[in-house]
Design brief:
By secondary structure, the chain is mostly helical. It contains 13 helices and no strands. Helix 2 runs antiparallel to helix 3, helix 2 packs antiparallel against helix 4 and helix 4 packs antiparallel against helix 7. The protein is globular.
């Protein structure tokens, strides 16, 4: 796609030049460090290094709560704010493909979150230095899964940012959509009866947590689970591109 690299560099630089990005990085670091130390200091179970590292990379709900919130906060201004300021119209009339604009923004937000989750490698180096080496293969696959999940929720955030002209509204709606996508499959599985079973089979296709547990958290790189995240991310990006293209004709 023409102009993809330029959009990616521009958006990534814009993220790291914004104060909000550094605040979010600091929040992620302290948030992950708190839960990491919480597991290690559990007197009833003793130090569980791999469990503690898994908790900060998708193995527990604290990580997902953070991801479902961070992705919309990063993407809420990427399209809505540029549309309101008139910069988006300039990009759409420039020799840059609409898909490159959306994909470049998604890649920048995903890269930012992938760098944020890489703080888990620092925890791994720390415990190895203290004499308790972690399972580096499991740690890497968990990080890869966390990055793929980040790409999916950043893509959903861009859809919301393209649909709504107010960044705060875009973030709020994206958080609601993320929570629904994450929480509905396990909630529906608790229902009884044929209707609940049928609905559970349908929603299983968007069960992010189960796909993550089935491969990345276990330290196994399964192509089926990788394709799951890539396919849904591509679908969300396609929808975002269609919404952005509609602005060209409506605006």
């Amino acid at each position: 796609m023409k102009g993809l690299a330029a959009i990616y560099r521009r958006e990534l630089a814009g993220l790291f030049l914004a104060p909000l990005a550094w605040i979010l990085l600091l929040v992620v670091l302290f948030y992950q460090a708190y839960f990491f130390l919480l597991v290690l200091s559990n007197p009833s179970r003793g130090p569980e290094v791999n469990e503690a590292l898994s908790l900060v990379l998708g193995g527990g709900y604290p990580f997902w709560l953070l991801l479902l919130t961070l992705a919309p906060l990063l993407t809420m201004r990427m399209i809505s704010e540029e549309s309101r300021s008139g910069l988006l119209e300039f990009l759409l009339t420039a020799p840059v493909a609409d898909g490159a604009v959306v994909v470049g923004k998604a890649m920048a937000a995903t890269t930012f979150l992938a760098l944020a989750w890489s703080s888990a490698f620092l925890f791994g180096l720390l415990v190895q230095f203290l004499g308790a080496p972690p399972d580096w293969g499991q740690l890497f696959t968990a990080w890869l899964g966390a990055s793929l999940a980040s790409g999916l929720f950043c893509a959903l955030g861009l859809v919301s940012s393209a649909l709504f002209s107010t960044p705060l509204l875009a973030a709020f709606m994206a958080i609601l959509a993320n929570i629904a996508m994450f929480a509905l499959p396990p909630l529906v599985r608790s229902l009884h009866g044929p209707a609940g079973a049928l609905l559970a089979q349908v929603l299983e296709r968007i069960d992010v947590f189960r796909h993550f547990q089935g491969s990345f958290q276990a330290g196994v790189l399964d192509s089926a689970h990788v394709i799951f995240f890539l396919a849904w991310t591509a679908a969300a990006l396609f929808l975002a591109v269609r919404v952005v293209e509609s602005r060209r004709w409506l605006g």
